[in-house]
User: What shape does this take?
Amino acid sequence: MKNRILITGASGQLGEFFVKSLIQDNNYVLATDIRENKSLDCDFEFFDIFNFEMGDQLIKKYKINQVYNFAAILSAKGEKDPLLTWEINNAGFINIARLCLKNDIKKIFWPSSIAVFGHNSNLDFVKNDEAMLPETMYGVSKLACEKVMFYFNSKNLIDIRSIRFPGIVSNSEPGGGTTDYIIDMLYHAKKEKNYTCFLKENAFLPMMHIDDAIDASIKLMKIDKSSLSKRSPYNISSFETSPSRWLDLIKSIGYDLKMNYKVDYRQKIADSWPKKVDDTALRKDIKWSPKYNDLETAKHIINLIQL
Ligand code: AKB
Assistant: This one.
């Protein structure tokens, strides 16, 4: 059956790419956001995830049977207003769950993040079910929703599937994340402008190409529940990089980017995140592996950037 999918946060860093891929995958897609996005090739409605009535109307009008819930405030922006971050990320998650329960929608995709880990996790190589004491409100809010997700799944109330995304590399303008430098560097290289980086040159974090993130998510959503060993989010991993390694790579593909460093509060966030992630469970359960390494990612994304 062709799914009828509602996407929240469709104008954001992940949303717009998922819209395109889910349409290509032969689904009906209704994109929603509080910001318009004219580049989307599907129905679009303004929708604030706090507006329950509006959500109810949209689900009925468009006969929705799945939701991809991307509306969220990211880590670095979240530290500027932690209470608003809690409100949007958690109340938004609950509101969408409530709408799904009311309208008998059985399946939700919701992204978690490597931000759920903290200094009590084994940050050199975090396992799927590691100890977690996140140090940003974004991470706290994601972890709280992970617990609610586990509850809903265990009680068979809704089938919520999730992956803990690392930094995602795409050609979308960055928007409030700690991993944003990786995209910003590609933009600056393409514009032939100097770049001032807010993380230390040797700050290693896990990253991945947007297409790999989408491919794994859609596979996870399609797979029979009996194949899944987790009722909480799966770790995912592709490659690890640091500002200086990414710079070397950008130079190796022919861009002469000049870098300065002005380290700020985001370095502390990066220090509390994993350097490497163990995603054995996901790879085994959905039979997935990434298609792009770091070099292929840089080459592909820089070519997609239009100035
Ligand atoms: C961020 O940097 O906040 C995000 C994330 C890793 O969840 N990209």
